[in-house]
Amino acid sequence: MLRFLLILVLLSITGGVWAETLVATGLIRGQSVIGPGDVALAEGTVPGALTDPAAAIGMEARVNLYPNRPIRPTDLRPPAVVERNEIVTLRYDQNGLLIVTEGRVLDRAGVGDRVRVLNLASRNTVTGTVLAPGLIGVGG
Q1: How distant, in Å, are the alpha carbons of 86, 87, 92, 108, 122 from that of 119?
Q2: Are residue 133 and residue 89 in the same domain, yes or no?
Q3: Are 20 and 41 in contact (CB under 8 A)?
Q4: pLDDT over 70 for what percent of the chain?
């Protein structure tokens, strides 16, 4: 009996909704950063879809997100902090040796992403990790 009353109380508080799915409120173009007004919770559950708006706000859309369609974690990524063709600082720091030079980014990327960079001094393409806007760590 107590379990039944608890269920009735929960239903009255939540309006009968057991779970909600995060959806786009309008068209969100790929490479756009998602704001609070871009997403909403809709009734029902969709397997694999996000249920918390905080998980999407501030992230960048990987692909176009359409109105009233569920948003999945794979549709989002951290916002890019380096753009293709941007001149950045390449930093190699290992065993007390520090080498700093300039490079040209060959792809868009966010903090923590691996990215290809053209070393402007040697004209070689290297792969590094985005450490901060305009800074790529290479080696080690």
Answers
A1: 12, 10, 12, 16, 6
A2: yes
A3: yes
A4: 86
